[in-house]
Amino acid sequence: MLKRVLNQKLKITMKKLILTLSILLVTSIASFGQKFAYVDTEYILGQIPEYKAAQTELDKTSMQWQKEIEAKYAEIDKMYKAYQAEQILLTDDMKKKREADIVLKEKDAKDLQKQRFGVDGELFKKRQELVKPIQDKVYNAIKAVAEKGAYSIIFDKSSDLTMLYTTSKLDKSDDVLTQLGYKSGENKAGSKK
């Protein structure tokens, strides 16, 4: 009787093992059918003249706004130093007024800085206006290359994803540039073609 129970348990265990191995085999075969590739969006964007022009315009605007803000802070610093030098000669009412003026100027400078460089600031909006359409075109071209080549996954080499080894055969950056209507670059950093 004990032998019979053990044989039944052994048969059930063997059936489970065979089922599990079958599932693993089917899953692994299905995963071998997937095609992978990668692109370097930093390289792609660097080959697009409109993107370079947009970046130049953003940098120029950013530097101009930064100088404007620095000038405001320099003015505040000048006001504060003058206040410190004259503080002994001022009445309490005059001190309070000068302090309030300095605090108000500081608040205005910080507000301007937030307005220009904040999370939803003017620089962010300008970047969205100039760069996002180009990035959307690149994304659509990557999608078209993926569909044309039947790739399941396309990685971005320039993102935070660590790629320890890549072969240039899987790099589809030039295909994306061609899809966008641009020539591929002659010297592509990091690849040997």
In brief, what are we looking at here?
With 193 residues, this protein is mainly alpha-helical.
Strand content is: under 5%
Q: Tell me the number of structural domains.
A: 1
N-to-C CA distance: 71 Å
Quickly count the helices: 6
H/E series: HEHHHHEH
The largest sheet has its strands arranged as 1-2
Helix content: over 70%
Main sheet characteristics: 2 strands, parallel
Structural class: mainly alpha
Rg, nearest Å = 32 Å
Overview of this structure, please?
- With about 190 residues, this protein is mostly helical.
- It has one domain.
- It has helices at about 1-30, 40-45, 50-85, 90-115, 120-150, 175-180, and strands spanning about 35-40, 155.
- Strands 1-2 form a two-stranded parallel sheet.
